[in-house]
Amino acid sequence: MADNERKVAIVTGSATGVGAAAAIMLAEKGCNVVINYTRSKDEAEATAEECRSHGIEAIAFQADVSEDDDCRAMAKAAADKWGRIDFLINNAGRTKFNPFPQMDGVSKQDFLDIYAVNVVGPYQMIRAVEPIMRKTGGAVVNDSSIGGVTGIASSIPYAASKAALNLMTKSLAHVLGPEIRINTVVPGMIQTLSLIHI
After folding, report:
1. Sign of the Cα pseudo-torsion (153, 155, 159, 161, in order)
2. Which of 10, 11, 90, 163 could be a cystine partner for 148, CB 3.0 to 4.6 Å?
């Protein structure tokens, strides 16, 4: 397959854990991939190298999805390199572990920081890829959590942010279709090598 015919995926928060596994799976299926990280450069480069071992191209790109300029720069990098974006997995996430009864354990800033990554970040990434993705059609997957449905999670702000992400996905489906399909996955606990995600 000519490289310009390969489908292209951006996976946010994909240096390690669930995001890395998703990126590697896409590479195995023949997609060129963007491995996104904020601080874990070495891990991102290692994940990109593992993706390349499947015969595709991969780049590691440092970007904070809570920053709109970073989102646009990452989308532009993918489009400039490969001329297309077919898939976006919004996996980057943030939480603060805090027992629910300890209401003083979370602050206004905690809410804002968590929402900036878990809700605003996916919105900004979708907005950044939408113009080029619409040309060929594509799919967006928002990684949420069962906590956004049950209300039980690592903290109240985290559960609330995932509930917001779930509803935002429904809203965006009205905007993006029919060219772009969008769905949310709501897993329960996932044990990775480093931590447990919920």
Report:
1. negative
2. 163
- Residue 158 a catalytic site member: yes
List the strands of the sheet with 32-37, edge to edge: 58-62, 32-37, 8-11, 87-90, 138-143, 180-185
Collapsing DSSP states into helix, strand and coil, what is residue 144? coil
Q: What is the pLDDT of residue 195?
A: 43
Identify the helix (H) or strand (E) that includes residue 36: strand 32-37
Structural tokens at position 167: 């509803």
Please give the structure tokens belonging to residue 82: 């490969």
* Sign of the CA dihedral running 116, 118, 124, 125: positive
Which tens digit of pLDDT belongs to each residue from 105-138?
999 999 999 999 999 999 999 999 999 999 999 9
Q: The whole model's pTM is what?
A: 0.92
CB distance 31 to 69 below 8 Å: no
Contacts of 81 (CB under 8 A, 6+ apart): 32, 57, 59
For residues 84 and 8, is the Cβ–Cβ distance under 8 A? yes
- Active-site entry in 37, 115, 123, 158: 158
